[in-house]
């Protein structure tokens, strides 16, 4: 437990999920608010509370004094009387929300990026299925490596929600110091950008791992943005959103930054490593893996052309060789660059 006096305006916030990103977000908020970080593994949470450091998921970043660590779910809900933040991977969102069913929830923000495997749903659609429309909810996304946020380095995020009250609450709670928080009402656009960029980071990792050069990398990122935009607009997102932080911004970060777990999956594939080995070595979620399949299926259903995503899914799930992935992309028929839909 940590006891710390906060200034007026401090909110009571619980972060549910104690991986790398939940921990970094909880640390950033704890400078100004009463924050409790909850994790489902009680032994790991006790270790974290004793070490004041998330030794497993985010080692080397000592917790600020205002951060309380807990493993009791009811206590975490009671603590987060102003805001709850779901900080698990997409695969954990439905089970986590099921635990919240029938409970008093002030406002709920989720940090996960992806489409749900099996259903092809975005996080806000999962939320609606499980909890209905009564809880104000929103997605916090944008280019943000946990390690950099934990170090207090500058970063810009976007909170997307149809609820202006929720957007204002998150901006008031998080904006300031080295964190800028923009707001958007385009929940679909923000969630699609965050989901698909992970698949494209795997593609860029493959290309870089094969030594294909900076020209190829720039081409993949740019045509990747076209894929994000095609799928996102087909689902109702706005074109401008894909040019912003949660689209182009996060795409650039994840495709080029070696801190990206998804990029590292691509680098590993290019070295000829098996997917299971790469994922085990990572020790963290790589959302682009399940998402590649979800996006391939969804795009096929919607008739949206997503050649890079399909090529990545071929390597991940159909045994295609990384070199073949690149050859397949290069062999496509020529087309107009900006023909609509792009
Ligand atoms: N790490 C980053 O830099 C970063 C930045 C922005 C967004 N994200 C996104 O945030 C999400 C979480 O990423 P991460 O980096 O924290 O992953 P991680 O692999 O570091 O940790 C995942 C955590 O989620 C927990 N978890 C899984 N299922 C759960 C459930 N049902 N209930 C409660 N906890 C559960 C695990 O125990 C683990 O603590 C992902 O969707 C990721 O794309 C990550
Ligand atoms: O490490 P990655 O690839 O999961 O990316 C982390 C964040 O989504 C970057 O914004």
Q: SSE layout and pairings?
A:
Blueprint: E1 12-16, H1 20-30, E2 34-38, H2 42-51, E3 67-70, H3 73-79, E4 83-86, H4 90-100, E5 108-110, H5 123-131, E6 137-141, H6 146-150, E7 155-160, H7 164-174, E8 179-184, H8 187-209, H9 214-234, H10 239-242, H11 245-256, H12 261-270, H13 275-282, H14 288-302, H15 307-317, H16 322-330
Parallel strand pairs: 1-2, 1-4, 2-3, 4-5, 5-6, 7-8
Antiparallel strand pairs: 6-7
The site of nicotinamide-adenine-dinucleotide has 26 residues, from α1 and α4.
Outline of this structure?
The protein contains 16 helices and 8 strands. It is of the alpha/beta class. The chain has an 8-stranded mixed beta sheet with strand order 3-2-1-4-5-6-7-8, with helices on both faces.
Question: Which features characterize this protein?
Answer:
342 residues; alpha/beta; Rossmann fold; N-(1-d-carboxylethyl)-l-norvaline Dehydrogenase, domain 2; 8 strands; binds nicotinamide-adenine-dinucleotide; binds SN-glycerol-3-phosphate
Percent strand: 5-15%
What is the CATH C-level name of the largest domain? Mainly Alpha
Tally of domains = 2
List the secondary-structure elements in sequence, H or E: EHEHEHEHEHEHEHEHHHHHHHHH
Indicate the percent of residues in helices. Answer: 40-55%
What's the CATH architecture of the largest domain? Orthogonal Bundle
Approximate shape? globular
The total beta strand count reads 8
CATH superfamily of the largest domain: N-(1-d-carboxylethyl)-l-norvaline Dehydrogenase, domain 2
Pathway: Membrane lipid metabolism; glycerophospholipid metabolism
Active site: 197 (proton acceptor)
Domain Glycerol-3-phosphate dehydrogenase NAD-dependent N-terminal: 13-165
Subcellular location: Cytoplasm
């Amino acid at each position: 437990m940590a006891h710390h006096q906060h200034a007026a305006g401090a909110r009571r916030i619980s972060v549910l999920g104690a991986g790398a990103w939940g921990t970094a977000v909880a640390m950033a908020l704890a400078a100004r608010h009463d924050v409790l970080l909850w994790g489902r593994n009680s032994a790991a949470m006790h270790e974290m509370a004793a070490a004041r450091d998330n030794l497993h998921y985010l080692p080397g970043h000592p917790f600020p004094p205002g951060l309380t660590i807990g493993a009791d779910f009811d206590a975490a809900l009671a603590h987060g009387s102003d805001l709850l933040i779901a900080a698990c991977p997409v695969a954990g969102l439905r089970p986590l929300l099921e635990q919240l069913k029938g409970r008093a929830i002030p406002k709920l923000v989720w940090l996960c990026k992806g489409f749900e495997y099996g259903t092809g749903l975005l996080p806000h659609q999962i939320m609606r299925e499980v909890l209905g429309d009564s809880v104000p909810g929103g997605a916090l996304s944008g280019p943000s490596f946990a390690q950099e946020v934990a170090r207090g380095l500058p970063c810009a995020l976007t909170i997307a929600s149809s609820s202006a009250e929720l957007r204002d609450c998150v901006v008031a709670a998080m904006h300031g110091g080295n964190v800028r928080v923009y707001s958007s009402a385009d929940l679909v656009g923000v969630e699609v950008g965050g989901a698909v960029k992970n698949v494209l980071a795997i593609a860029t990792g493959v290309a870089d791992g094969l030594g294909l050069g900076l020209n190829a990398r720039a081409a993949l990122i740019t045509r990747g943005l076209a894929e994000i935009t095609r799928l996102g607009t087909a689902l109702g997102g706005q074109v401008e959103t894909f040019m912003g932080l949660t689209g182009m911004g996060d795409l650039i970060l994840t495709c080029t930054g070696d801190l990206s777990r998804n990029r590292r999956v691509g680098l590993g594939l290019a070295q000829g490593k098996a997917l299971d080995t790469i994922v085990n070595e990572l020790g963290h979620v790589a959302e682009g893996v399940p998402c590649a399949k979800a996006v391939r299926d969804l795009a096929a259903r919607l008739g949206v052309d997503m050649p890079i995503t399909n090529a990545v899914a071929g390597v991940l799930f159909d045994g295609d060789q990384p070199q073949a992935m690149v050859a397949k992309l290069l062999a496509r028929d020529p087309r107009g660059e900006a023909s609509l839909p792009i």
